[in-house]
Design a protein that fits this description.
With 398 residues, this protein is of the alpha/beta class. It has two domains: 16-253, Type I PLP-dependent aspartate aminotransferase-like (Major domain) (Aspartate Aminotransferase, domain 2, 3-Layer(aba) Sandwich), CATH 3.40.640; 257-380, Aspartate Aminotransferase, domain 1 (Alpha-Beta Complex). Helix content is 38%, strand content 16%. It contains eleven helices and 15 strands. The strands form four sheets. The chain has a seven-stranded mixed beta sheet, with helices on both faces. The chain has a four-stranded antiparallel beta sheet with strand order 9-10-15-12. It has a two-stranded parallel sheet with strand order 1-11. The radius of gyration is 22 Å and the shape is globular. It starts with a strand and ends in an 18-residue tail after the last helix.
Length: 398
């Protein structure tokens, strides 16, 4: 049975047109794009086309696009570059709700190299505290990194405004836009963003390819050294088939963006409105707007997300949980903890992330089956409302 796939923020299906574009570069057109001969030049020309397609989606110049292997590499490159070119500055400013690709890196830099790391708070709807943001931007700040859209809730941050504030203070600004690229319009040439990360497998390209936008004139130090590829900004022979696919995926994203923001948004709204109406003690996590058109994070009180996912999986429905099992104990999502979502809600959070391949029939099935799953799990839960013995506490434990 074909799965009902509502986990597109984790990864997406490679678009058939993307695969078609990639296939010749595994077999007939296999030359190294850096080679001087005509055969290599054919491949190099296609790689230049891919770069132009990525730039068109981002609203920037092609020579501002540096190809990488993934979003995590792009994130690491951006932050480490800023710290290298600004060695006299020891502060990194980011948020409590970033992806682990950012949070893991800055925590490592704090522990091993003594950097001052500021993790900015968010409110109950996942929105950034603008006053706290401005206060954190001291003269010692080397870089600010704020995600364009949250991977768990879909909440969109005001990146044009935040980047402009950073520029006014002479601070480099990076955004992890892995979830936002291809879903919402961007024109980087009209912002003050210095660097931006994206990942191919989040927008119907293959895994193992990504890109880093670096604004022309931005001081930059490469992470990978040892070759002339990417104009000396990222050494290593390019993943030519994957990057050509990325270019095609970016072209298709421009074509489908209106659909993403109308039909897909309508499906998402119908899903969450139907679930919230059908299931008592359920809540939407994150602001209703601005939010990615494909993402809905809903908590169901007094049940565990993992149990919900297992029941959904038995029906062929793929989603993800907002909590993770670590060392034998359940820990709610760091995003929901930062938002102060109560413990008994946070443990029962489910993220649904749709795509242009999602159908009405798939949403209908979830609306039919999930309320029954929640009802069954609540009847057997030791944490149901009748057995709750203590006052509701926030997920942060405060």
């Amino acid at each position: 049975m074909k799965p009902i796939y509502l986990d597109n923020n984790a990864t997406t299906q490679v678009d058939p047109l993307v695969l078609e574009e990639m296939l010749p570069y595994f077999s007939e057109l296999y030359a190294n794009p850096s080679s001087m001969h005509t055969f290599g030049g054919q491949v190099g020309g296609k790689l230049r086309q891919a770069r132009s397609r990525v730039a068109a989606l981002l609203g920037c110049a092609p020579d501002e696009v540096v190809f990488t292997a993934c979003g995590t590499e792009s994130d690491n490159t951006a932050i480490r570059s800023a710290l290298t070119v600004r060695p006299d500055r020891r502060r990194i400013v980011t948020t409590k709700v970033e992806h682990p690709a950012i949070l893991g890196l800055v925590e490592h830099l704090k522990k091993t190299e003594g950097y001052d790391v500021v993790l900015l708070p968010v409110d109950g709807e996942g929105n950034l505290d603008l006053a706290a943001y401005k206060a954190a931007l001291t003269p010692d700040t080397a870089i600010v990194s704020v995600m364009w859209a949250n991977n768990e809730t879909g909440v969109v941050f005001p990146i044009p405004e935040l980047s402009a504030i950073a520029r006014e203070r002479g601070i480099l600004f990076h955004t992890d836009a892995v979830q936002a690229v291809g879903k919402i319009p961007m024109k980087l040439s009209e912002t003050a963003v210095d660097m931006l990360s994206l990942s191919g497998h989040k927008l119907h390209a293959s895994k193992g390819v990504g890109a880093l936008y670096v604004r022309k004139g931005t001081p930059f130090a490469p992470l990978l050294i040892g070759g002339h590829q990417e104009r000396g900004m990222r050494s290593g022979t390019e993943n030519t088939p994957g990057l050509i696919g990325l270019g095609k995926a970016c072209e298709l994203a421009q074509t489908h963006m209106a659909e993403e923001n109308s039909r897909v948004r309508a499906l998402r709204d119908r899903l969450e409105q139907g679930l919230l109406a059908a299931v008592p003690n359920s809540k939407l996590n994150g602001a209703k707007e601005p939010r990615l058109p494909n993402t809905s994070n809903i908590s169901f009180k007094f049940v565990e997300g993992e149990a919900i996912l297992l029941r959904l999986d038995q029906l062929g429905i793929c989603a993800s949980s907002g909590s993770a099992c670590s060392s034998g104990s359940l820990e709610p999502s760091h995003v929901l903890r930062a938002m102060g979502v109560p413990f008994t809600f946070a443990h029962g959070s489910i993220r649904f992330s749709l795509s242009r391949t999602t159908t009405d029939a798939e949403i209908d099935l979830v609306l039919t089956e999930l309320p029954k799953i929640i009802d069954t799990l609540r009847k057997i839960s030791p944490f149901n409302e009748q057995n709750a013995m203590e006052e509701e506490k926030p997920a942060c434990g405060c």
